[in-house]
Amino acid sequence: MKYLLLLCFTVVFIVSSTRSFAQLPVKPLTSQANLLKSTNKTLERNKKLVYDMWREFLEGGHLELAEKYFDENYMQHNPNAATGRKAVVDFFSKFSKPQPIADSIKLNVVAIIAEGDLVMLSFVREMPDPVDSSKKYTTTWFDMFRIENGKIAEHWDCAEKMKMN
């Protein structure tokens, strides 16, 4: 009887705890200015290159800056975009228009991490709750870039293939 009671308590606890505890919201670790710092000047320079590309090219829509940021043979691993600097410009020209460049990335940046020739940005991503459409939840989006000769040479992210119109 004692073991049966313990088993019942354990089952009730496990079932109730998985339903009562929610995922922690994703939040930035610190300011974007702090995320750009590094004791290694090469890593700091690589972080700043990716950061400025994100602000000026992606968010600012200044596609004329592609040569400043992307290697001509830029390699793309997102299944929705082609490889090459010209291809990245063509891809973003479909839905990007020039606008004033902000001093910081508009999205909530969780972290900017640099190691060797790689820089990874992680962002807060808010999504509709599939169980309750009146609610949203946060998760994380990742983009990683490889730097070569002072330009972005390669990109990875967690995008899934989409139907493009």
TrEMBL record:
<dbReference type="Pfam" id="PF07366">
    <property type="entry name" value="SnoaL"/>
</dbReference>
<keyword id="KW-0732">Signal</keyword>
<dbReference type="InterPro" id="IPR032710">
    <property type="entry name" value="NTF2-like_dom_sf"/>
</dbReference>
<dbReference type="InterPro" id="IPR009959">
    <property type="entry name" value="Cyclase_SnoaL-like"/>
</dbReference>
<dbReference type="GO" id="GO:0030638">
    <property type="term" value="P:polyketide metabolic process"/>
</dbReference>
<feature type="signal peptide">
    <location>
        <begin position="1"/>
        <end position="22"/>
    </location>
</feature>
<protein>
    <recommendedName>
        <fullName>SnoaL-like domain-containing protein</fullName>
    </recommendedName>
</protein>
